[in-house]
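User: Here's a chain of 222 residues. Predict its fold as tokens.
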Amino acid sequence: MLELKGIYKWYNSGNNRTFLLKDVDLSVKAGEFISIMGPSGSGKSTLLNVIGMLDTFDQGEYHFLHESVHKLKEKQRSGLYKQYIGFVFQAYHLIDELTVYENIETPLIYQDVKGSERKAMVADMLDRFQIVGKKDLFPTQLSGGQQQLVGIARALIAKPKLLLADEPTGNLNSKQGEEIMDLFKELNNEGVTIIQVTHSEKNAGYGSRTIHLLDGMIQKNN
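Assistant: Prediction complete.
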């Protein structure tokens, strides 16, 4: 499904070059559930953002569904991302000015899905996540757990082939966290490829393999 070859990302300050990612090779098959672990500052979120095309890189090759991402213009990358990738953030990234319903609907508007179809798809998501009663509320009126559910519903509504999750249970209590992870497992069983960044060994255990990052490099002994 995707392949990273020799990915480097750095920033320069004065004469010093600081590497955020260093010679990263990663191959992900469709249907895998991968956990990325490592200490703070090891490059986990940076790697996820590169895979999700939210972030560029300085050197290397990235192939996604037979497209050479490193050769695409920003608009083409953005089109690829919107069509195939769903993103779940630890900080939710909901739009405060939009209701729960409108937040979930947003990706479909980007994809030019017809109004009647959008309505049915949003209703389905509200139902699946048991948040029908919250559809007219704004994010600030929700608990952290509810906001995360809305974030996940939004990430899933366009039926992405790849779901990227950055510490998806970081702000949730253990019961909510478990529910989210069970849901990810279910989605993975339905064929969605998942890559999650997590600090939790327990959450990592839901995946089919774990990748350890240290100082922007994948540790080879895994």
